[in-house]
Each structure stands twice: as C-alpha cells, then as structure tokens.
Amino acid sequence: MKEHDVVIIGGGPAGLAAAISARKAGVEDIIILERSHQLGGILNQCIHNGFGLHTFKEELTGPEYAQRFIDQVEEAKIPYLLDTMVLDVQSHKVSYINKNEGMVTIGAKAIVLAMGCRERPRGALNIPGYRPAGIYCAGTAQRLMNIEGYKVGSNVVILGSGDIGLIMARRLTLEGAKVQVVAELMPFSGGLKRNIVQCLDDYDIPLKLSHTVIGIEGKERVTGVTLAQVDDQRKPIPGTEEHYECDTLLLSVGLLPENELSRNAKVRISPVTNGPVVDDTMQTSEDGIFACGNVLHVHDLVDYVSEEASLSGKNAALYVLQGRLEKCEIPLMATDGVRYTVPQTIDVKTMAPLVTVRFRVGNVFKNRSVSVYYDDKRIMCIKKKVLAPGEMEQVILQKKSFEAYPELKQITIKIEEA
Amino acid sequence: MDYDVMIIGGGVTGCSIARSLSQYELSICLLEKDEDVCSGTSKANSGIVHAGYDPIPHTLKAKLNVMGSEMMPQLSHDLDFDYKQNGSMILCFDKENLPKLNELYDRGIANGVKRMQLLSGDEARALEPNLTDAVQGALYCPTSGIVCPFGLTIAFAENAYANGVQFKFNSQVKTIDKIDGGYKIGLAGGESYTTRYVVNAAGVYADVIHNMVSDKKLEIVPKRGNYLLLDKEVGDYVKHTIFQLPGKMGKGVLVTPTAHGNLMVGPTSKVVDDKDDTSTYSTDLEEISTMASMSVKNLPLRKVITSFSGLRAHEIGDDFAIGQASGAPGFFDAAGIESPGLSCSPAIGEYVAEMIAKVGNVRKKEHFITTRKGILRTKDMTSEERTSLIKEKPEYGTIVCRCEQISEGEIIDAITRPLGARSLDGIKRRTRAGMGRCQAGFCTPRTMELLCEKTGMTMEQICKNKKGSELLEENK
Predict the structure, then answer these.
(1) Which of A242, A363, B70, B160 is 20 to 30 Å from A309 at the Cα level?
(2) Pairing of strands A3-9, A102-113
C-alpha cells in the first residue's frame, strides 16, 4: 500500500489552501484527490465578482480566485488526481477510484477533509405538488448556465434567499429571463446583505420574507407555483395565497456539508453545523483527520474558507512532523442567539497565540453585543449594530488572555443587550 | 395481421404478460404511451411482495398473490433484479382488535402462506426495537419481501425484448375497432396496426381501453397514495415491513426499508378524478407522519429526501378484472390491478399467457431465453473486481452520481442496452443515478451529456420523462 504524509480530499478552495499551507509547514509528500475533471471546485461556476476582498484586497471572480491557488499548487508541484472519487476514509487510510488506477487504497499519516457541501433538494422540503421538469437547485442551474452555457428557463420564481439563489436571480435577469419574486420562509434572508442589494434591489426583484411555496403546478414542465405567507410557526396562512405563472422554480434553501465519508470514518458530527466537531487545530474527533471549508460548516465568504483551510493544512503537517500532542480541551459553548462555534474546543496550552472562533447567529439582532465569558467572567464584549444569520461572525481569542484562568472549565459566546 | 398479440401498457403487468407470452410462437408488440416502461403506477408504489394473507381465500387475487410471491425469489435470480425477503409485521394497537390478527392468520393459512407467527407486543419489539410501546400484538410473516418495482418491470421488458417482443413508445392508443379475426388499433400519432389478440394492461386507463370494445363497462377509479422516502442513513430504522391493522384510522400506513436500502413511509389513500393526478399534498404528508408515528417511535422525518405520489388502479368491483372481455372475443383485460398487483405480476403474466395460448392454440418456443443480466452495480463489487473491470472498461472508473456512487459505465449501459433509457428518469430508474440524497443536483449535467453523446439528442431535447418535460430552453 502506497503511503502519503498528507492526503487532501477535495480540490476546491479549501483543499487547495490546505495543500499549500501543509507544504509551507514543511511536508513534502502531499496529494490532493479531486472528483471533478478540474481543480477549483464550485468556484469554477461562480463567474460573478466579489471574491478575494479580504485575501487579496481586490475583487475577483470565482474562477480567478481559484486560479490564484491553483497556480500556487502548480508552482509548489503538489501532486493531484482529477476525476478521482474518494469512496472510503478510515483513520490513516483512504480508498479512491478513478479510470486509470481502478480502486486503490492508500495510507495517510494525516487526512484533510475538504469535500464541500451540497444543496438541500426540493424533496427535503416536502413542498407539495407535481414533480415536473423545471425545478432546479440554484447551484445546478448555475452550473448549466455558467459552465455548459444553457438556458434553464425564462420565467422564474426563486424559493429561498441563500446566496446562490440571490446571485442566480441577477444572473438569470442578465441572461434575459424574468425573475418575478424571491420568497423566503424565514423573516430574514439567509444571504449576505450585499447580495440582496446588488442582486435583488438593483434589479427591482421583490424579496418576500415569511413566504413559501405551497404548491407546484404542471405535469411535465412547471407552469406555475403558489406562494403563501407563513405565521410564526412557519405554517402557511390561509387566504394569503398568490399564484405565479412561471416555467422554472429555483431553490436556494440551504446547504448541507457533505459528511458521508466523515461519518463512515466515525468522525463526530455536530448536529448544528452538520460538520465535524473540531478543536483549535481543526482536528476532528478522529486522530489525524482534519477538516476545513464548507464540509466543516457552511461559509459566507470564500476568503474565510481559505484562511481556515490554511490553518487546517498547517496543523495536518505539524501532526505528521510532530505526532499527536496530549490535549487538554476546553469546550466553547454557543448560547443566547449564537448557534454554534467553530472550533468547538480549544487547548489553551498548545493553542496558537491567536485563535479565530467563527460562528453564526440564529436570528437578526440589532444593537447588541457579542460577549465572551471564561466560565462566568465576561472577558470580551463587542458592540454590533446588526447581527444576521446570513453573515458569519468571529471573535479572536488570545492565548495570553487565558493565563489568568488556570482552572478554566468552559468558554461561552453569547449575544447580550448592548 | 400485423401481430398476433398487441399489449397496451408497459407497466409491470403489461411487461410481465409480454415476457410470459414470449415463451410462445407468437408475434407480439407492446404499446406504451410514455417514453419508457414503468412510467405510471408501477414506478410509484410500496415495492412490497405481499405474502398473501390479505386477499379473501379462493379469490383470483389470493391465488395469484401466493403464486406470484412464491415465484419472486427464483425470478429475481433469473432476471437479475433487487428482491429481498425481509419479512413483515402487521401491528395491532388495541387489545380488542387482537382477534383481527387471528383472522388474518387464518386467512393466510387458508391461502397457503407459510411460517406465519402471532407475536405479543414485547415479542414484536424484541424483533424490531423501534416499534412503539402502543403495539399490543403483531402478525409476523417471514415470507413477505421487498422488490425494486423498476428493476422488476424493466427486467420483464428486457427479457421479453430478448425473446422477440417489439416495444413501441410514445404510442397512445386512441381507437380500437373490431375487424374480421381481430382488432385494429389506432394510435394518437395516426398510425394503426392490426392484431389477432389485444391485452389491456393500461393501468388507471384500463377502463377507457376496455370500454372501446366491450359491452359490459368497466370503471377504474384512481386512488392516490403519497409517500415519503428517507435517506439511506436511516434505511435500517426498521428491518421488516411494518404494516398496521386496518382499523378506525383507515387502512394504515407502512414503514419499510426499500430494496435499495432507503426507508419509505406511506401511502395515504384518496380517490381522485384525474387519472394523472400524481401530485403530493401537505395534508397527506402530515397524515403519513402522524400515522407512521403510531408504529415506529421517533421516526427520523428530518431525513426525508423526497416525497412522491402514485395512483392505484382501483376497480369499483374491488377485484382484479382478468380475462376475456364481455362481447369482445380475443380482447383480454388485465385491469384493476391494485395492491397486491406488484406481488401478483409474475403470476398474472403466466395466467394471461396461458389463457391466450389456449384460445389461440399456440405452442411454446423451443428456444426461450429464460435469463437476463441487469446493469452492473460496481458499488457492490469488491475493489479487485472493480479494478479489473476498470482496466478493461475505464468508463466504470468515473463516478457521475456521488450519492449513489454510479459510474459513467453504468449510465452508458442504461442508455445503450436494448430498450435503453431516453430520459433522465429512465436512467434514474435503471441505475439509481439521481435517486440519492442530493436528488440529482450534482449528476444532472453530466448525465444529460452522456445521453446526448450516446443517442445524438441535443441537450435541449432531453426530457425528465415524457415529451413536454424538457429541462432546458433553446438559446435564442
């Protein structure tokens, strides 16, 4: 059995950044396994701009952003396999399949999970009605339009205000389709504010909050959908039904980290993020398996994916070079409006001088503060004008801040009145 | 005459009859209104092979059920489709209804069902730990099974084709006229064919077809059933097929693993007017979850990957209408085939074929091909087997459908084999590509490309299923 030091599963933005930083940290023997026929992952179909503002201080398109990392991988001569699907991951072992080698199992001193996420389909929502052609997940439609160059429809209703749905509202409009409305079940959008402004407001596309699709018509192709307003329990309110004639229904109703491989590898999965539970080195519950990117938790900006993946790749390399360290992990608790944190634990002895803790809130909050407690002592309080579920938040914890708390049991992050 | 026999309808009943008839020296043609076999009721049902305790003893239904169920294991081997004898339980929730379980047991004995057992609530829970505490007793039936309804129908069709049966798709029957020595069948497209015998296996439309020729009218009422399908992650939540004893809450819903390893819950039962009304309703979907929660505790409904609806072809006389139609010699019905129709289908095929052979006084062929090989399932192969296959045929090394791990090779086979798929749903039913948890989100573009490459269709011509369900618009 061939063995590699670091095996990276996925050649999207997370996998690429992890590979580059693992090499920088001193590991030679790295391999990236990518299921598609090219590196870059989902960025290849994201032809709009707005990527890289944090990382490169300039506005790039998705393929441009990806190319910057692909170039670094090529320069560093990090090997990768394309059209290669990983079928199984176990501690220190990865099995994959491709047409050149067949089915192969390789050894791995460290593994980085970077498989990304998938879209929640119509079926998972139990939207009643027929099952005609013309119902697309927004990302599938995006691929068909931007990569294959086809037109998915001309008269469109969008359900869900996730970022891909918002981006596609603009994209379809630019391609000559009529986007009538974007309906969102929740009383707030799940997308970035800047996307609502630039993709809906600028094109006069109405966003109907607290609305959902309650019926799909058309036996062969979609001919119409019925929207209704929903109450606090997210149940449709009778009498609020509105019918829209359309040929296409686009769904942007949530992304799910793709953790089938992780589950098989017995990696502990958080029920909130649907991604692995990780410590401050991005290591999962399984020895030598690290995670980063959208397989860990769904991000809003790829810049954060790259940053987090660099950390994951670096720590995978350190794991290979130094072996596993004894851990003394302190849990990070998310309460009072904070849905989760990544990482979920920190080792205050071995941690880096600065650790970024990312999280999302569960509702829209105005004029509140994000507070960090060490046990019951508040040590940080950051005022925020607006906190929204669509935007990822972060706090940075300093290693030296823990010196005064040798008996620390837990760290808590919560939203409080400002 | 153009043909000896024309079969109307390419569902499981029509395809089984086609296969059984193809054992005889007959020229046979099957007409299907949609683009593929298995496009109606046969594609949307519970996929259960009932053991046969349900039908009233000595009825045709009882006879065909037990016979069909007994044929299934050998047939799944010969024709290479998914079938598993997983056993079933009928649950009783009220002490006063326990005698009804005994009645079913006695009926099963009368029908010739083997190895049944009456269980207490605790015994049932010992076999199936996720049953609720409300279960007071159960009838356990180890010979009940689960089958892939697509696999079964397609296997019948392909084997019939291999034995000389012609298939005409997109061929909706508009008229049937009695002519000397047979019938003349007119299609919606204008063409017409003559045949000595007609078999009516038109499912929910069987009454329309029947009433074109017979003096005694038939009425088929579609009864719609909604289902929920859950992720394979929870596919072993129950191992047996869990039924409910019919009671004041209606016929009850089932919870079952499918032949593919998903978990399925349903169906509801609502009479509808429209013979194509396969929509789902939120009230039905809620009803399913409420009802199923009586049987199984903490049903993981967050793991639903899709919901769908199918129509039972219910004959208002409540029995199978199989045989020569009144006033129409040479016209044979196989109508009103609702549950346990799937279980009965192999037996219905034999029964109708023998009937026609007798009337026509025809002999069996000398060389009937009894077996058929399905599409390779690389996921189930060992890594050595896969590697040597890929060495020879590299297309089996590229995975297109991630969720179900379906390779290009399997999709290409589904398209290029006899009676190959011409639509995305056709590929899905043959290979499971697109049937997993992402519901074709990732594999759709590549599957469409393969369909274009192998058939010469353009991307804009590709349909989800029948004509009119094109996925893309022409770029103008």
Answers:
(1) A363
(2) parallel
Give A126→chain B minimum CA distance, Å.
6
Q: Is the dihedral of CA A49, A50, A53, A58 positive or negative?
A: positive
Residue type, A223: T
Round to whole Å and give the CA distance between A15 and A300: 17
Q: Does A214 touch chain B (CB under 8 A)?
A: yes
- Token digits for A369? 């503060």
What does the alpha-carbon distance between residue B409 and residue B83 come to, in Å, rounded to a whole number?
23
pLDDT of A96 strictly over 70: yes
Q: Which residues of B touch A104 (CB under 8 A)?
A: 383, 387
C-alpha A416: how far from chain center: 26
Which residues of B are identified as catalytic? 50
Chain-centre distance for alpha carbon B237: 23
A155: nearest CA in chain B? B473
d(CA A179, CA A23) in angstroms, rounded, equals 46
Cβ pair A284, A267 in contact under 8 A: yes
Q: Is A150's Cβ below 8 Å from some Cβ in B?
A: yes
One-letter amino acid at B88 equals: S
The pLDDT, as a whole number, for residue B250 is: 65
A141-169 per-position pLDDT tens digit: 999 999 999 999 999 999 999 999 999 99
Nearest residue to A12 (alpha-carbon basis) of A80, A91, A60:
A80
% chain A with pLDDT above 90: 95
Enumerate residues 6+ apart whose C-beta is below 8 A from A346. A279, A280, A329, A330, A332, A355, A357, A397, A411
Q: For B140-156, how does the pLDDT look when each residue is reduced to its tens digit (9 = 90+)?
A: 999 999 999 999 999 99
Residue A252 near residue A259, CB atoms below 8 Å = no
Flag whether residue A140 sits within 8 Å of chain B, measured between CB atoms: yes
Q: What is the pLDDT of residues B187-219, one digit of tens each?
A: 999 999 999 999 999 999 999 999 999 999 999
pLDDT higher than 80, residue B389: yes
B305 vs A151: CB contact, 8 Å cut-off? no
pTM of the model: 0.95
Domains of chain B: 83-145+221-312 (3.30.9.10), 378-461 (1.10.10.1100)
- Selecting from A123, A148, A219 the residue whose C-beta is nearest the C-beta of B306 gives A123
Q: A97 and chain B: CB distance < 8 Å anywhere?
A: yes
Closest by alpha carbon to B25, among B371, B372, B360?
Answer: B360
Say whether residue A123 is in contact with chain B using an 8 A CB cutoff: yes
Residue B49 has pLDDT above 90, yes or no: yes
d(C-alpha A264, C-alpha A340), whole Å: 23
pLDDT in tens, B229-256: 999 999 999 999 999 998 766 678 999 9
Set of chain A residues whose Cβ sits within 8 Å of the Cβ of B398: 83, 85, 98-99
Rg of chain A taking only CA atoms, in angstroms: 22
